[in-house]
Amino acid sequence: MSFIDIAKSRYTTKKYDPTRKIDADTIEELKEILRFSPSSINSQPWKFTFISNEEIKKELAKVSYHNESKVNDTSHVVVFSVVKEVKDFEEKNLPLLPERATLYYNRVLKPKSVSEIKTWLSCQVYVALGYFLSACACMGIDTTAMEGIQLDEYDRILQDDGYRTLFAVCIGFRDKDDENQPTLNPKFRLDAEKVIRTI
User: What's the whole-model pTM score?
Assistant: First the structure.
């Protein structure tokens, strides 16, 4: 299947089949795909947490608002986190990067406010999200990206010092009766001329 066909058939899954789990080899492949995600100046300011433990999933489900059933029923939840403090990024990540990357950071980004730098760091994790959703679609894995979760509660449950949760992704296999799949609920996208410019 071509990538355009995958793009047209991929959708946000609303209902998962709790009896189907992603096998361990595929999970390891997904971990490696995330590890190779692109980021500006190869900054990699992230942490990816794969959760299959049913008790932890139940805890997370309770603080996931309208996503509760998805978190409970999906095979795995992947939590995408960003380094919490700019200072930690500068002390731990930056020294590992090539000189040209460090020069760029110090010249272009470091003069900005802490808030702006944190936004830039978070944007890198969103780049990884797009990469991950596309990879899952190519591998026949259904996904739901979730910002509708209680971020502070996720941090409390997962206890990963130095990182803060930005969003999470359910990965698994759709329930055959999921009403959101394109065969039952055609995808809506704006017309090309409204979103694409050619100059």
Answer: 0.96
